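Subject: Probable branched-chain-amino-acid aminotransferase structure
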Amino acid sequence: MSRVVYVNGRFRPHRNAMVHVEDRGYQLADGVYEVCEVRDGRLVDQRRHTERLLRSLAELRIPLPLPLAALDVVLHETVRRNRVTDGLVYVQVTRGVARRDHGFPPAGTRPSLVVSARRTDREQNERLAAAGVAVVTLAETRWARVDIKSISLLPNVLAKQAAREQGAREAWFVDRDGYVTEGASSNAWIVTGAGAVVTRPVGPDILRGISREVVKDVLAAAGLTFEERPFTVAEALQAREAFLTAASQIVMPVVRIDGRPIGGGRPGPVAAALRRSFHAHAELS
């Protein structure tokens, strides 16, 4: 089946889905994006993803190119046309098409909107979670506003590639004080020896992950101890468990950090329980 992509008001075959060469997203990375999980044909936490999209747009002073009700229709129709049962839907909004100039384009320039959807293999993801993944740590190299979900991701690209070259799936950024900020495409968590579940507080130095917020709800419902504070690489290496969260991975156990095993090198019970309970606390639409 050929894929279908929504581009600026029209659904197009994937092979013909194009934007203008002077789109500011292409030339200046002047835009934002969201990635939402699709499960059993329904969008997971669409409301929260939309709220974060609107926040990112407001921070960059980019207007939403169509009403929210229309965006909702486009998202669901893109999923339907691609027959995605389990997968991801991607939304990207840029400042639009204009002559290349670092300053904002003339007033009235219409933002560009692209929405695509693709399938993922749920069984493969479950096998990956059952085995756990490895991460490596790298010095923080990103700009100071990663709370904005910008399409400018070159440091993340380089970090992810560095991880792959070392046989790992993810890279965790580490700030100048030795504390883990987050992953190249995920939020970072540990479970301490005392059983507390720890992740860094939200701020301009990390993205407020939607899966992160759902996990907080799961922890509260389960009565588990939650600590929102920074943790060091050294503390992570001594942790009982570690895991990461992202829309594409839900809750993914981490079993090695910088080549050293965590929790005996096997996924731990807390991460496994959080993964099992995740969708019972997420919103489906």
